Amino acid sequence: MRRWNGWGDDTIDYPLSARALAFLEEAVGAAVPPRDVSLAEALAAVPASRLAGAAREPAIHVAADDRLRHARGQSLPDWVALRGGRLSAFPDGVAYPVTSAEVARLLAYAAEVDARLIPYGGGTSVVGHINPEPGPRPVLTVNMRRMNRLLRLDAISQLATFGAGVAGPELEAQLRARGFTLGHYPQSFEYSTLGGWVVTRSSGQQSLGYGRIESLFAGGTLLAPAGETVLPPFPASAAGPDLRQLVLGSEGRLGILTDVTVRVSPLPEHEEFHAFFFPGFIEGTTAARRIVQARLPLSLLRLSTPTETRTTLALAGHERLIGLLETMLGVRGVGDEKCLMLCGFTGRPATMRDARHAVIDITKEHGGVNAGRRFGEQWIEGRFRTPYLRNTLWERGYAVDTLETATTWELVPRLLADIESALYSALEDGERVHVFTHLSHVYPHGASIYTTYLFRLAADPDVTLARWAALKGAASRAIISGGGTISHQHGVGRDHASYLAAEKGEVGLAALADVIARFDPDGRLNPGVLIETGWREIA
Amino acid sequence: MRRWNGWGDDTIDYPLSARALAFLEEAVGAAVPPRDVSLAEALAAVPASRLAGAAREPAIHVAADDRLRHARGQSLPDWVALRGGRLSAFPDGVAYPVTSAEVARLLAYAAEVDARLIPYGGGTSVVGHINPEPGPRPVLTVNMRRMNRLLRLDAISQLATFGAGVAGPELEAQLRARGFTLGHYPQSFEYSTLGGWVVTRSSGQQSLGYGRIESLFAGGTLLAPAGETVLPPFPASAAGPDLRQLVLGSEGRLGILTDVTVRVSPLPEHEEFHAFFFPGFIEGTTAARRIVQARLPLSLLRLSTPTETRTTLALAGHERLIGLLETMLGVRGVGDEKCLMLCGFTGRPATMRDARHAVIDITKEHGGVNAGRRFGEQWIEGRFRTPYLRNTLWERGYAVDTLETATTWELVPRLLADIESALYSALEDGERVHVFTHLSHVYPHGASIYTTYLFRLAADPDVTLARWAALKGAASRAIISGGGTISHQHGVGRDHASYLAAEKGEVGLAALADVIARFDPDGRLNPGVLIETGWREIA
């Protein structure tokens, strides 16, 4: 069963070795886990619903369990609220529609009872996309997970239409049975949904090969309070601004996507992942940039800083293997400042062979050592297990959060340093922070910067939240002033909404608010997300 | 000097052989050229300006010559109006700003005198983007051609910032001198500008390799009546809807782009173009689809129907060479229904060798014969000369126009047939039409359909225009009802505006109108383009 106050399936754990714990203690100090509220306590705190759960189709579930499980996403503040018993608002009901017609009925019902409406995919947001706001109007959460079927496969055009609530594994299973793949693997893949990927501009780990969701999203149907909009799956068009690009990143504010047509690929003939180690981050960054600027057809390229590489190896277990690796690397001049680069090759065997040779040539010029396929394959096998580490860390008294941005290659080194130093110096109460970073996605014209920060949980949830706010605020300000976007892959939600004007401009943000008002004149859908409540009055 | 009533430089001609003329006579009948008005007659018909050309910076030119040369673009109705002396409106003045500050002053001046404002790039629109509307308010055309400099090259990030008025050849010359290329080659390349490409969602002939302008456009600055918007050149972002995608396709209605940052590539190490001939269009289409769906790294792929192949060979001259080719093809089973496919290979030599072999393997499976590089190289050398043929044809009494769309592979064959048959049967006065088509751009998930139609000019310009309207209307209705977009690469302008709601939907179109109203509250910029005047009142 899925955890109500943590990540993932409760039969899966990510154990930490004694060496890993010693590493953490060394980094930020020994920690004591706070007392979490129990499920029974949390359920007891759910107030009465303001919606009638009476007989209607689709049913509106008002049980405390449904409402608690849809109250929060997976951000660190969400965890603090869930585990610390600090939930300020709950949906008044949860519906699980099966058809577009049922979604339309829910929109009509919300208008009838003047309820707010929150479209809900996998509930994996880490920036506050699906949290109800306290307020006088009742809140209905629309969980899309039952709209999860392959509705049409146009194999000639390599286009597949799904119910928007389909989650990653269900989507891939249905495509693979027919010889296709979408190739979209965000870390939330186990639970996050196609519709959620679209409205948050999700990026998968192999987006270098398959493309971000922006290029995979061919079309679909959006049901909005103002009416239905069908987005046709043209391969390209010069017929004015592309409405798909307004739906991408709309974060539930324009309507509810009921079906989504995606561009799929035949299953790859060949796939392999290689690890490389570089003597330092500058060498690794230069090699990464040269590889992607050579337009080599890789499916994945990520590069960790020395601290992230050290942390990854310390937390991974496999002590003997890593010892052997470090000896081997040392002989070849790669020592304490070593940086791990992972490269994925997915496609035609001949093309991949050529690409691999070209990558190896470039890495060698920058002192890179090819550590072969073993580390790469291990990473790819364990890639959806990583979020489970959050559970273990919390239970050991450690908070972990991530933040991310993207910028041009010219600005990457400085922005990365600014973000890390903002985090290191953000806490004024003497608490230490462990910070590490990787370039998670590379483009010919820039890269994303993905930073993890780890610190101790306080006994008092409010103190933990204050630490988080100080860290997150400092890093976000560094991102904006350093020329980065406030998000490369997590979206805006509530946590980033106040930073949006910096990159959209006042006129641009006002235009987006106008678009929202056109699709949803009564402000019924997901208010406060993407654009702050009250922002229109300010502008 | 540039022709005032035709295509291109008046020292360049595209002669037609006797065989070519015989081919045309056979197709649609012998023709008599209409009498065109002279430049002196056209200048005499320019009315007095409603704007003062007095001393101000930048100067506003009110001479008849400036105003005549900015009155129309390059569509067939534009030519009919220019050559037939049927111009209904002229700009009242033309300004040629050099700096962003001058553009800002022009926006302020337009507000002051309540003028309408038309941003003007190369004047190569074929759908009515830059034509002034008759009306009580004066019209100021802002010709951007003097804002044509490379402002910044970030070689590390492969990003180049230009003045938005830079034309194709100037842009490439400035990049090539520094080892880079944009690789964007629309047929209008000689005159069309970077800013024009962006706001019309232009597609270059080698977009298969370099990407459409949508993926080359990294950011820039838009000056609008409501204020300035800076679009940062992030490589990717999940921070809400992408405002660049609202500027792309905005066709001058949101403001004036003053500078544009584009994603550039190093000059390719290797480039070659190959011609293939297929025994029929089905075989060619299947091969084209399989090549692009194999994700082979081509820079160009276009496929002509049998009629287009026949027409191209007839108009090309080189009778002996073509005779030899036809004999060679006949021996290999490629006869009267032969279809020409051109493939471009641009990039690393090893990758290109691999791609070429893979392409040859696929074409062979569908009866394709590789005719080598000669035809391909000839096409690429002459590719910007083709529009000059329009001048020659007009002078021989023939009108020629093109229209285009894109759709999914599944729908391509039917839609292509529908468009051609709509054109063949559109004229009720017994006039014949010669129609031919190619797939100009292919994608894994669909293709563009580019149709040329040729018919006789009437002695009376109004009759010619009526013929055009009947043909264009029939084809546009076929596109919409057959599942195509109203434009893959020419844009909306005035000629396609009434078809836009069919693909954007009522809510979507209203949202776009809202965005326009936000950037340009007084409706000063390019009214009637993209979204029809009066449309908001209807919705």
From TrEMBL, chains A, B:
Needed cofactors: FAD
Source domain of life: Bacteria
UniProt-annotated site: Important for enzyme activity, residues: 302
Chain residues that bind FAD: 119-125, 200-203
List of residues binding substrate: 390
Gene3D superfamilies attached to this UniProt entry: 3.30.300.330, 3.30.465.10, 3.30.70.3450, Uridine Diphospho-n-acetylenolpyruvylglucosamine Reductase, domain 2
Keywords of the record: FAD, Flavoprotein, Oxidoreductase, Transferase
GO biological process terms held by the UniProt record: lipid biosynthetic process
The enzyme's E.C. designation: 2.5.1.26
One Gene Ontology MF term: oxidoreductase activity
Active site: 450 (proton donor/acceptor)
InterPro entries (alphabetical): Alkyl-DHAP_Synthase, FAD-bd_oxidored_4_C, FAD-bd_PCMH, FAD-bd_PCMH-like_sf, FAD-bd_PCMH_sub1, FAD-bd_PCMH_sub2, FAD-linked_Oxase-like_C, Oxid_FAD_bind_N
Residues covered by the FAD-binding PCMH-type domain: 87-267
Protein family according to the UniProt entry: Belongs to the FAD-binding oxidoreductase/transferase type 4 family.
Identification of the protein by name: Alkylglycerone-phosphate synthase
Organism of provenance: Candidatus Promineifilum breve
